[in-house]
């Protein structure tokens, strides 16, 4: 996969792209990450990329020329998904991450100031994504979040190929609790079932714990699931115990 980010502050990505899973993904050849300064494509000798909004108002608006020039230059005729990081966009979810992970080519647009010239949205962008109902100073942090969520889903990136499948939200449920050594830490003990060696019972316990945690913390997630009779019985059991 190729991912190209257009930003006014490309240095913000240096540490994130050069560490942890994103660094390993690049070393394995699973992804190519590149960041370009939007100012390089300004048509103004002062590298100006913003201007006052028509009709007046507070703040500055990103001009269309640098964005169009940048996307056209880096895509070289290809038709990738062009993603605008924007609080007006659709709420980012694990399902969206899985959808984007199937692409070969992604371009992320990160802006600052008051907003973007509307022609960027209408004629350049294919997706608008928001990571939540709040406003940040720019699109860089949201882009890092989306890219991290997407790249970890690519084949060969994680140590175990199925390790992301049980992540919270991947199954529609929150993930079950995890434990490791020691089995007894200051009197706080690991559940006996996990030490039993009975894998069928362990999987059943984990499934029940996922439903329990989802009921307690995000019951809204259950509304979108098509539950089996077995799962309905698990939920009824948990509710009676709660």
Automatic annotation (TrEMBL):
It catalyses: guanosine(37) in tRNA + S-adenosyl-L-methionine = N(1)-methylguanosine(37) in tRNA + S-adenosyl-L-homocysteine + H(+). This is tRNA (guanine-N(1)-)-methyltransferase. GO terms for biological process: tRNA N1-guanine methylation. It is an enzyme of class 2 (transferase). Its EC number is 2.1.1.228. Belongs to the RNA methyltransferase TrmD family. The keyword Cytoplasm applies. HAMAP family: TrmD (MF_00605). Homodimer. Its main location: cytoplasm. It is found in: Cytoplasm. Pfam families: tRNA_m1G_MT. S-adenosyl-L-methionine binds at residues 111, 131-136. GO terms for molecular function: tRNA (guanine(37)-N1)-methyltransferase activity. NCBIfam families: PRK00026.1, trmD.
